[in-house]
Design goal:
The protein has seven helices and eleven strands. It is an alpha/beta fold. The longest helix is centred in the middle third of the chain and has 18 residues. The N terminus is likely disordered. It comes from Aphanomyces astaci. InterPro entries: AB_hydrolase_fold. This is AB hydrolase-1 domain-containing protein.
Length: 252
């Protein structure tokens, strides 16, 4: 547990472990809250992109965010809102039961459901607001029609896509797609968290930047194109905000 003193009023950062009952696994999360705000009932949940992390995986040291977006959310959110950021399955801190290589977006939809359920049942939140970035925006879109989440109040997607088939071409180069077809896997870039043991399957490690490459099975690509964002968004009733820059060159 860590008291963050950068803000006008303190927030407490603590590690949490989110159970995914349907898959018998746990996800590493970081919960930020203000102990001076009684009876908190609202929480923002951040879904990170791919390949990326929300939380530094080392639970033996001071809790820390692993990327800028959740860090800025934590800085700017009103203290009446808690913030929960979680590393999806297959990523450092959440890779005990699911190796990176066998990640699937459909499994991360299960993760997303479990994260929302954790907010509802473990944290007692009555108002859950999701913010998804890039691939996290895909996941946020795919839970819009999941009516079991009675506390889900809003979904905001940043730099998302409407078609997963097109998304494959944005996330994976022609060479990566060809390698996946030929070899059954492709190498994907990842910026590894500092002071964390390198994975044994890492290649072309750049120690100055932390960038490395890891194999990801072709199943990830095939699974991705099978997901229908349009149906989930069209059938859902939760208020839905799309944020997309006019000059976004990476995700047009």
């Amino acid at each position: 547990m860590y008291l963050d003193r950068k803000y006008k009023m303190p927030r407490i950062l603590k590690h949490v472990h989110v159970p995914v009952q349907s898959r018998r696994r746990h996800l590493l999360g970081l919960l930020s809250s203000d102990p001076n705000t009684p009876s908190r009932s609202s929480i923002v949940v951040y879904f990170h992109g791919f390949p990326d992390l929300s939380v530094h995986p080392d639970t033996s040291v001071t809790p820390a965010f692993a990327s800028r977006f959740p860090r800025k959310l934590n800085e700017l959110l009103p203290l009446s809102f808690d913030l929960l950021c979680v590393n999806f399955s297959g990523l450092p801190g959440s890779d005990h039961d699911v190796p990176y290589r066998s990640k699937l977006l459909s499994h991360e939809v299960d993760d997303a459901d479990a994260i929302i359920a954790f907010c509802e049942h473990e944290l007692g939140m009555r108002h859950v607001h999701i913010v998804g970035l890039s691939t996290g925006a895909i996941l946020a879109s795919l839970v819009r029609n999941h009516v079991m989440h009675t506390s889900l109040r809003s979904i905001s997607v940043v730099a998302g896509i409407a078609d997963t088939t097109e998304g494959v071409h944005l996330d994976f180069s022609i060479d990566q797609q060809a390698q996946a077809q030929t070899d059954g896997f492709c190498l994907t870039p990842f910026y590894w968290p500092p002071n964390w043991p390198l994975p044994p399957d890492a290649v072309d490690v750049d120690s100055s930047t932390g960038k490395l490459w890891r194999p990801l099975d072709h199943g990830y690509l095939a699974d991705m194109v099978a997901l229908d964002i349009g149906v989930s968004v069209g059938l859902g009733k939760v208020p839905f905000l799309v944020i997309h820059g006019d000059h976004d060159k990476s995700i047009p």
